[in-house]
């Protein structure tokens, strides 16, 4: 930025003559008339610096005398002279003031651990922060995010439409469990398999089991196995409108008495177990969002990473994966794992 003209230029000739001797006054009036009465004003900082140090280089005036009238200090003029004599005109170009060192920089071994965990687990910055905290490595989630971004390990997200905030219902473990089916991506020995998934809304605790069929019998068998394994009492389940869960859009139409439709075997089993069976609206998988999101984690972190050739290998791997998932930190649990959440709820001893 080009500075304003020196303050002494606004003084009257009488004021200058009262401060200096006649010879000195005549010398400086002629000098500044030569310096400031140019046809063009300087356009860059380099031109401005050159304008002030050129008389000093040509020894037309002493630096101390120049500093009395120049808008810059004597020290600044000395810096400019030093830079000009060492590098010429290029030495007057403004250099970056960016710090060359950072005393609070993250340790190299911490950065390496962050990158190692990211490549192994593909977890987000906040989840990596929680894992590192358990390893006694104190680093903020924002720092982890900056390190991942600097290394090109982040992805760009599309901007989502903002909706007004809504209150979230707080559930107790077992108050509502979402159930859904995921197709196993790989065909084993020429046969398709199906992953039944149940996830508790409150604790995010999850149970998985693979079947070679997804009919009514498999649904009932999975529900009974879930009840026997779950560490809490299941009061209600929620499923989609698939025929292996309900007759609402298939068997109801075939019922002789519309007021007393034929119930699905799963509904009959739920009545025996005193469990409420909720259904989502047709074409609204978002209403079963918790289990759908867990299926995405299954695909990205399990099926895309492991290999299996037999159903026994798949069952073994999926048990290990389910144990890992129940010990994994969750955003909705504020960094706690499903098993830790059950301990807080006094479900686990």
Automatic annotation (TrEMBL):
<protein>
    <recommendedName>
        <fullName>Integrase catalytic domain-containing protein</fullName>
    </recommendedName>
</protein>
<dbReference type="InterPro" id="IPR001584">
    <property type="entry name" value="Integrase_cat-core"/>
</dbReference>
<dbReference type="Pfam" id="PF13683">
    <property type="entry name" value="rve_3"/>
</dbReference>
<dbReference type="GO" id="GO:0003676">
    <property type="term" value="F:nucleic acid binding"/>
</dbReference>
<dbReference type="InterPro" id="IPR009057">
    <property type="entry name" value="Homeodomain-like_sf"/>
</dbReference>
<dbReference type="GO" id="GO:0015074">
    <property type="term" value="P:DNA integration"/>
</dbReference>
<feature type="domain" description="Integrase catalytic">
    <location>
        <begin position="169"/>
        <end position="346"/>
    </location>
</feature>
<dbReference type="InterPro" id="IPR036397">
    <property type="entry name" value="RNaseH_sf"/>
</dbReference>
<dbReference type="Pfam" id="PF13565">
    <property type="entry name" value="HTH_32"/>
</dbReference>
<dbReference type="InterPro" id="IPR012337">
    <property type="entry name" value="RNaseH-like_sf"/>
</dbReference>
């Amino acid at each position: 930025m080009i500075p304003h003209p020196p303050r002494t230029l606004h003084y009257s000739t009488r004021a200058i003559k009262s401060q200096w001797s006649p010879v000195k006054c005549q010398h400086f009036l002629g000098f500044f008339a030569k310096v400031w009465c140019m046809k063009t004003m300087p356009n860059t900082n380099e031109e401005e610096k050159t304008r002030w140090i050129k008389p000093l280089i040509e020894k037309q005036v002493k630096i101390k005398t120049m500093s009395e009238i120049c808008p810059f200090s004597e020290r600044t003029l000395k810096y400019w002279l030093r830079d000009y004599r060492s590098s010429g005109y290029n030495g007057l170009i403004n250099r970056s003031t960016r710090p060359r060192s950072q005393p609070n920089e993250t340790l190299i071994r911490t950065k390496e651990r962050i990158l190692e965990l990211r490549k192994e687990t593909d977890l987000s910055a906040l989840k990596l922060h929680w894992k590192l905290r358990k390893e006694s490595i104190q680093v903020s989630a924002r720092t982890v995010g900056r390190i991942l971004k600097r290394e090109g390990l982040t992805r760009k997200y599309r901007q989502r439409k903002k909706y007004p905030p809504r209150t979230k219902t707080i559930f107790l473990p077992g108050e509502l469990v979402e159930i859904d089916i995921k197709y196993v991506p790989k065909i084993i020995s020429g046969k398709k398999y199906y992953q039944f998934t149940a996830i508790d809304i409150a604790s995010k605790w999850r149970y998985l089991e693979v079947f070679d069929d997804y009919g009514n019998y498999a649904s009932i068998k999975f529900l009974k196995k879930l009840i026997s394994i779950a560490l809490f009492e299941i009061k209600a389940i929620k499923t989609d409108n698939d025929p292996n869960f309900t007759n609402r859009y298939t068997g109801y139409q075939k019922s002789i008495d519309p007021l007393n439709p034929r119930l699905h075997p799963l509904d009959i089993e739920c009545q025996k177990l005193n469990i409420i069976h909720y259904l989502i609206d047709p074409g609204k998988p978002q209403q079963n969002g918790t289990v759908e999101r867990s299926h995405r984690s299954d695909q990205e972190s399990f099926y895309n990473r492991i290999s299996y050739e037999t159903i026994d290998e798949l069952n073994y791997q999926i048990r290990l994966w389910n144990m890992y998932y129940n010990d994994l930190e969750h955003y909705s649990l504020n960094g706690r794992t499903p098993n830790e959440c059950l301990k807080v709820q006094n479900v686990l001893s």
